[in-house]
Amino acid sequence: MMMDDQQGSAFGFEGTWREFAPIAFTNLLLTIVTLGFYRFWATTRERRYLWGRTRFIDEPLEWTGTGKELFIGFLLVLLLFGIPFLFLQFGAQILVLQGHAPLAIGLSFAAGIMIFYLAGVARFRALRYRLSRTYWHGIRGGTDEKGWIYGIVFIALTIVGYLPLMLAMPWALMTLWNMRWSTMSFGPFRFSASGRAREVFGRYLLFYLLIVLIFVMLGSLFATMLPRMNGAGAMTPPSASVAATMVLGIVVLYLGFGVVTLIYYAKYMRVAIGGLTLGDLQFSFLARSKAWLALILGDIALLICTLGIGYIFLSYRHWKFFITHLEATGEIDFNALTQSTTRAPTQGEGLMDAFDVGAI
Amino acid sequence: MSEPSDDPPGAEHDARPWHYDGRNGNRWRPILAAEGDGFRLIGEGWESGIYHWADLTALDDPAGRAVYGLKGEAGWRLGFDGSPPAALSVYLPTASCYGGVFDRFGLVRAATVCAVVAAFVLFIGLQAPGWIAPYIPRTWENKLGDAMIGDFGGRICRTPQGIAALDRLKAKIDPDGMARTIEVANIPMVNAITLPGGRIIIFDGLLQQAKSGDEVAGVLGHEIGHVEHRDTMAALVRQLGLSVVLGGFNGNVGGYVNGLLSLSYGRDAEAAADSISITRMRAANISPADTAGFFDRMGGGARKSGKAAEAMTWLSSHPLSESRRAAFANSAQKGHVYAPVLDAEQWQALKGMCAGDRDVEKGFPRLF
């Protein structure tokens, strides 16, 4: 099947919040009365709706994951993370109090590395799980990799990315993204990911500009306070205007950091998804910084106006945002789109759940 | 269960289902021909084997179409745009909505039952530790306490005179030896804690703040109350239980609730510990006035802020409330002559114990 640019977008979201509301509210109710245990099944219902209302060319996607899988994933997390985490929390303190400080530090370091490693593995396995449970035209995605090697690369690249004043972070993140997606497939076709960090580096430098600005601000603040020092070195209490400047500075700092993150991330997503291909399909993501800003401000307004209950609609908003800005061009041959032969994982993205990070 | 196979239902063009076989991405529009307890799909130039109605599973389709899967065949789909033909509907399963149990009993009924069970679980979870703790053998608790704390990382202060003063305090306020050890730790916090295994540790910061030995005796009496009622053990059991029960919630929510509930022994336990302290002071002929003064000083800021402070006492581990000060103040008998529990020399020895101990470690134990 050919995709014609005249037809409009290959991806379309056809859900409405009115359809989603009964799902969201009953999920909330059942999650509360089960002391939280329903949330795995709630997530599954939510995804069945969001996937099923997402059209790709001629057919909706289908989510086939189950609540039980997510629950098993969660139990695995309790086991894998619970043990190092419990040690960090209690065991280490007990050892210090018993006078075995070096042992405690050594074991804490090992536990920390273990958590770090599993965080990388988790990110990989979440993507694998989601692709293996996503069907379209009766065909699913997946990968035969299990993410154990990815976890090691994740640690290595994160450290390398941090070392030169964090300047290599965009490169490390983009390399990890490309590595993650290049091992994934849909049907018989392998994804290829070739996003280039060079393209996002300019925006990444805005973080450093922000830091320079902070130092300039601090410097000027110090300069205004300097004349107040009297000969003995004692300082008169800062005036109201200085205090106001400081408060304003902190607000600007937080806002500035948020806005720069948003500008950087908007570009990052465009470049990363823009580098994705699957067979003859070429993906692109069109959301610009302005659209991201509208999304975030909308989220905040929704949360404030509904006194927080609007929280249950955030997943809907974010998915809709993602799909409406996602594009694909190219050709699919349905005869060649044969079933995936990858092994499907048996448990859900429990690890990812523990870190509360997005899977894509 | 047999349909005439020469006249298959759904033979009309618009009632034909769509079908994915799960092997490739082609969308078929076959004819569905019922046969025995199952059916065949007949397309242009192909015909499927027999599928059994019992192997079909209904899928909940958000777009409102009737979609079915086949057990054991991932990706196999049979669907009708709109509702399936009436002739077939008797054979077709219905979709699950909320998941097994909730569908069977209906949302409202199942949710109500769950809410009652949840309330019961929470109630038991909060109450049970208090019931269980007294049955945990003291020897276990002692071992646990020693394993957890050891020698407090070398932070326990020891001078011969200071220990003599502590022994004197102990003999007065704890003549029956309820507390296994009473020690002073070189930590500059105004606090005293009871650890599992009946070990009471007074922080040096509290001694520096206190005006007299009587004051310290009041605080000690309070901590002995916690030992007597095994509040520490109950708190540990509660924390363990809650982390299991609230594990179902998102990490953060569970963590906060857990922290709030387990931080304190609870208001009742604090009040009970206070009354034990007052009883013990009376028995030892120690004036409670100084302890009241201690609360007065500690709560000085809080009393001014009124209601807010009252609300905060629900959150802090040792609520510094006006009512607690009053309880100590009112227990003082007018005209009665009390004897100071420590003389001036003993008090100075206790107060100066940490400063006088050269070998003691400093500060709060931290990892890094």
Tell me what you see in this structure.
The complex is a heterodimer of chains A (360) and B (368). With 360 residues, chain A is an alpha+beta fold. Chain A is built from twelve helices and eleven strands. In chain A, the strands form two sheets. In chain A, strands 4-5-6-7-8-9-10-11 form an eight-stranded antiparallel sheet. In chain A, a hairpin with a 2-residue loop joins strand 2 (54-56) and strand 3 (59-60). Chain A is globular, with a radius of gyration of 24 Å. By secondary structure, chain B is of the alpha+beta class. Chain B has two domains: 13-95, PH-domain like (Roll), CATH 2.30.29; 136-356, no CATH class. In chain B, the strands form three sheets. In chain B, strands 1-8-7-6 form a four-stranded antiparallel sheet, with no helix packed on it. In chain B, strand 7 and strand 8 (73-80) form a beta hairpin. In chain B, helix 5 crosses helix 15 (344-351) and helix 7 crosses helix 10 (267-283). Chain B is rod-shaped. The model of chain B is unreliable at 1-13, 248-263 and 300-317 (pLDDT under 50). At the A-B interface, helix 1, helix 2, strand 3, helix 4 and helix 5 of A face strand 8, helix 3, helix 4 and helix 9 of B.
